[in-house]
Amino acid sequence: MQFWIIQGLNSLALGGLLFLLASGFSLIFGLMRIANLTHGAFFMLGAYLGANAIRSIDGVNLWTAAAGTGLLVAAAGGLLERLVLRQLSTNPLGQVLVTLGMSFIIADACLMIWGGDPIPVPTPADLRKPLLMFGFAFPTYRVAVVGCAIVAAIALYGLLERTRIGAMIRAGVDDMDMARAIGIPVSALFTAVFCLGAGIAGAGGVLGGPIMSAYPGLDADMLPLALIVVILGGVGSLLGAFVGSFIIGFIYTFGIALLPDLAYVILFLPMIVVIAFRPQGLFGRIGA
Amino acid sequence: MKRISGFLFLALLCVFPLFAGDFYINLVSQILIAAIFAMSLNLLVGYGGLTSLGHASFLGFAAYASAWSTTHMGLGVGTSAVISVLATMVMAGLFGMIALRATGLGFLMITLALSQVLWGLAYRWVAVTNGDNGMSGLARPSPFGISLDSGANYYWFTLVVFVIAYWLMAIFVASAFGSALRGTRDQARRMSALGHDVWMIRWITFIYAGFWGAVSGLLYVYYTKYIHPSSLSITASAEGLLSVIAGGSGTLGGPVVGAALLIILKNYASAYVERWNMLLGFVFLFIVLVLPEGIVPGLKRIFSRRQGGQS
Q: Beta strand B135-136 with A136-138: parallel, antiparallel or unpaired?
């Protein structure tokens, strides 16, 4: 019983981290039609920057590191969007290739700066004690990660559904030309959404640090999971990213625990089913 | 004129090992293998308008299948080659059924996800793939009793396969089916209205590209006598795609030029800098931002302008 509950919690924690990654990817894709392959590298860059800040700067804890790193990575994302992707606004394939090239550059720069050994991120001291509930011991930090993901989901939902900016973003996702025609500053929204997505991914990397630490290849491990989440949930859909993240979190975690050799093949299954019966994804309205 | 220079170039390639050293023979062998891989990807990217970021799955799968069937099942090299290519085509058929539900960026994302799943499998399924250690101890085939163990002999073998591949892909592209394929790239809806089965055309092309991807995988695994999960990685797929786009997608010679430049760059750069992935990233940025049409179409344009003034 303990096994199932612990693995269930691990699944939720992985699902939460995936949501932080996939929601930004999905928003960027939904609004800008850019498949941002740098997203995994943003996650990894966040993990490394956060790990370094916590270990070398006094008084920085995990939460301030996550916030600061999120801002830094958001700025990096904004630069990438403004300086490079904007040049290619009529060339979606070129944009994908540029984000792919950037992901190689960032990944290799991380390897160059921080070396090949994994850098563990310490769990915050007050979250180290296991949480005792119903006679079971839960790793407290994982519960906190799930909490963070849910808070982020609610905040994003509020931003998208309850604010003026959110209404503009939704208008841009639905019909960009019309949104532009009625005076919505779509170009500024692009930069804002790109920064937002990159920032959440960077902060997610820091929050994932105590669970998976920062290591070379983290980007290549996380990006495909995020892609599968987005294919599953539907591009541009926040709810889709949320549901898809937890589905993949469960399948991947239990796959690793029960059939370690074939965990990756099991990831095929939900993808095949969804693509066969609902190619636009579970909650998607637009075709990819 | 063009044909004559082509034959001269081919003749040069044939006699090349007689006066070149082993390093250059092996370098050109690698180029020919990478060129077959890039040409097969070009069928999808250039002629089909389907940008795949998972083409390394075919190369890697065929290489692993051949390695596994010779070392674990004790099959002969020839039998295992046939089985590996057929198995890769079956896999391409399945992958195509999934990925071709989408086009454009969706297709790209699905092919990337599928190839990453294979890559993860090659890393984790240690019982079959030997994981991060890779598989070694493989043999080269000896067609008609000729040993291919020397660099020069293997070079000629690769060259023969390359010429056949180039010729067959040229026929494929020039055929009525090739025209239909270009039609689905440019005007999918009109092709559909004209009664063509757009999905079927794409699916057949996907499998055909998988076939040549598998052939390049076999040549690769015979060449290195070793296979590692990195052959299935996104870097491997991206190198192929970069060759196609750098050389010029949708031209026959473009991917060959692109593959040659990439292999030469990789070999020479790795002598000076350790950071191949970073360099690859910068080459990506350079090509997309500065030479988006590719090298061969760019040169063609410059050449035709100089010759007749018509552009």
A: unpaired
Q: Above pLDDT 70, what percent of chain A?
A: 97
What pLDDT score was predicted for residue B310? 45
Closest-CA distance, B23 to chain A, in angstroms, reads: 28
B294/B64 Cα distance (integer angstroms): 32
Q: A197 by DSSP, 3-state: which?
A: helix
B283 interface with A at CB cutoff 8 Å: yes
- Give the H or E element holding residue A255: helix A238-258
Question: Do residues A281 and A237 lie in contact, with contact meaning Cβ atoms separated by under 8 Å?
Answer: yes
Q: What percent of chain A has pLDDT over 90?
A: 33
Count the helix, strand and coil residues of chain B and give each as a percent rounded to the nearest 5: 80, 0, 20
Instruction: Give the confidence band of B104 by pLDDT, cuts at 50, 70, 90.
Output: confident
User: Are A205 and A214 spatial neighbours (Cβ–Cβ below 8 Å)?
Assistant: yes
For residues B72 and B42, what is the distance between their CA atoms, to the nearest angstrom? 34
Are the CB atoms for B135 and B71 separated by under 8 Å?
A: yes
**Tokens 């390049």 identify what position?**
B216
Q: Which residue of B has its CA nearest to A35?
A: B105
Segment B280-293 mean pLDDT: 84
Residue B309 confidence (pLDDT): 46
A44, A79, A97, A251, best to mutate vs chain B, most B CBs in 10 Å: A97
Higher-pLDDT residue of B1 and B16 is B16
pLDDT band at A103 (very low <50, low <70, confident <90, very high): very high
Query: 């989901």: which residue's tokens?
Result: A153
Q: Which residues of A touch B281 (CB under 8 A)?
A: 100-105, 108
Shortest CA gap A37–chain B (Å):
9
Cβ atoms of A15 and A222 closer than 8 Å = no
B273 interfacial to chain A (CB closer than 8 Å): no
Nearest one of B136, B134, B158 to B216, comparing CA atoms: B158
CB-based contact A49:A231 (threshold 8 Å): no
Quickly tell me which residue has 């932080």 as its tokens. Answer: A20
Predicted TM-score of the model (pTM):
0.87
Which of B91, B111, B86, B90 lies closest to B100 in space, CA to CA?
Answer: B111
Cα→Cα distances B127→A165, A232, B122, B207, Å: 53, 30, 10, 28
Phi, psi of A139 (to 5 degrees): -65, 115
Residue boundaries of the structural domains of chain B: 21-233
Query: What are the tokens at B292?
Result: 């988006």
CATH architecture of A2-277: Orthogonal Bundle (1.10)
Residue A29 above 90 pLDDT? Answer: no
B15 touches chain A (CB under 8 A): no
In this prediction the ipTM stands at 0.82
Say if the Cβ atoms of A104 and B288 lie within 8 Å.
no
Cβ neighbours of A103 in B, within 8 Å: 281
